[in-house]
Specification:
Structural class: mainly alpha
Radius of gyration: 22 Å
Helix content: 55-70%
Transmembrane segments: 67-87, 99-121, 133-149, 169-188, 218-240, 252-273, 285-305, 325-348, 360-380, 386-407
Keywords: Membrane, Transmembrane, Transmembrane helix
Number of strands: 5
Order of helices and strands: EEHHEHHHHHHHHHHHHHHEE
Largest sheet: 3 strands, antiparallel
Length: 419
């Protein structure tokens, strides 16, 4: 613990180099899990590194006589999330052991993102270094691809370039994260002027994402770009015309965006028809409807299941499960779980609300994750690049603004800083 770098985290603490290295390794474990390698017992690394990080910070707090709790503004939303997931775990229909593993994965993921990460990273260091981690993971997958046989047990594995990842949609998350991070860096003014490396990152991410052929991710990239341009227009107008006029412009542009998206969806439905849309979505829509209609109770759900799993069809035989975050939430955790998820997303949004610019560009990351969840399950439910980007960014932003609690050991008081 003696070797430190002069870097201050979002909680205002000195950052230890070993903690940063351990967190980088923890971030890379999911990339290993998502690879073409038939990984076994990968949770040993995922849980083990997290346990080591928590142990180091706990011992440090005990020696200092106080416990630092980051992300104070998310305590209530995530207490609801964890309690409801535990209730659904108890109700799990015959797959309790498997569901328990994913429940612990979920706990570990958000414990690291919300409690550990703000004590290691500031907003600036998180964006800069997480982009490097994703560049490393994607570059390693491209270089290692010729030496690793393709996995063919997932439907659609050959529809685009996936390199050493198991599926093109999984591979596409990494260039999308690189692209989003670069946009957010300049939006939040972590960087003022673009350098050649930043231009290279954008070009590399757009080219590799296009090669994957992931339609969902390409759509998310387009929406994120438009949202970023919208934010630039509003923030520029606010700078020169503060007051009600700027707020009115922001509301008007958001309303136009909602109307445009809703109108586009309705036009596509009317002109193409439900069957054509379902075909373009590779049958996701019809299968999700079948699975949801087969559930006995959609208010409470059928019980906690691994992401994509269902009681209607075998994932191994079909090559895929329920695609889409929202279908998975409603099926497994019911409408109650969906409402609690919405509360958690609102909590994320509130963590960044202290600053107009940070709030605007955090919204780009959050909306990108939510759109990705329309057809994929990796956001929120799993420790994907999009999950960690949104969760850690929210926690570091909120903690930096004062959303932390300090519990003094041996005293009857809890000192908090207002969010």
């Amino acid at each position: 613990m003696s070797s430190t770098q002069r870097v201050i985290s979002a909680t205002g603490e000195r950052v230890y180099l070993l903690d940063r290295i351990l967190f980088y390794l923890w971030l890379l474990v999911p990339a290993y899990q998502y690879s073409d390698l038939h990984v076994q017992n990968s949770r040993v690394g995922f849980w083990g590194i997290a346990a080591l990080l928590i142990f180091r910070m706990t011992m440090r707090d005990l020696l200092r006589g106080r416990i630092v709790l980051a992300s104070r503004g998310l305590f209530i939303p995530f207490t609801l999330v964890f309690v409801w997931k535990f209730v659904e775990l108890v109700r799990s229909p015959g797959q309790l052991s498997t569901a328990l593993l994913f429940f612990v994965d979920f706990l570990v993921t958000y414990a690291c993102c919300l409690l550990v990460a703000p004590r290691i990273f500031s907003v600036q260091t998180w964006l800069v270094e997480f982009r490097r981690v994703n560049l490393f993971a994607l570059g390693l997958a491209i270089v290692a691809h010729p030496f690793i046989p393709d996995r063919t047990d997932m439907a659609g594995w050959d529809k685009g370039a996936s390199w050493a990842f198991a599926h093109p949609n999984i591979a596409a998350m990494y260039p999308l994260a690189i692209y989003l991070i670069t946009i957010i860096m300049f939006g939040m003014r972590v960087k003022r002027r673009p350098q050649s490396f930043d231009v290279l990152c954008v070009a590399f991410s757009v080219v590799t994402l296009t090669l994957t052929g992931s339609r969902t991710t390409l759509a998310v990239l387009v929406v994120a770009t438009l949202l970023s341009l919208f934010n630039v227009i509003v923030l520029t107008y606010v700078r020169y015309t503060p007051g009600r006029g700027a707020k009115a412009l922001s509301v008007l542009l958001k309303l136009c965006a909602v109307v445009g998206i809703a109108g586009g969806v309705y036009f596509a439905y009317v002109s193409l028809g439900a069957q054509v849309i379902d075909d373009k979505l590779s049958g996701r829509l019809s299968f999700a409807v079948q699975v949801l209609l087969s559930a006995n109770d959609l208010v409470l759900g059928v019980g906690l299941l691994p992401p994509g799993s269902n009681l209607l069809a075998d994932n191994t035989t079909r090559g895929a499960g329920i695609d889409g975050l929202y279908a998975n939430l409603v099926y497994g955790e019911g409408y109650v779980g969906l409402v609690i998820f919405a509360i958690a997303m609102f909590g994320f949004r509130c963590m960044a609300s202290f600053d107009r610019r940070c709030s605007a560009f955090f919204g780009v990351a959050l909306v990108s994750g939510l759109l990705f969840g329309v057809t994929e399950t990796h956001f929120w439910l799993l420790a994907s690049p999009l999950t960690t980007l949104v969760a850690v960014l929210a926690s570091t932003l909120g903690t930096r603004a004062g959303g932390r609690a300090i519990v003094s050991l041996g005293a009857r008081r809890c000192r908090t800083r207002p969010a």
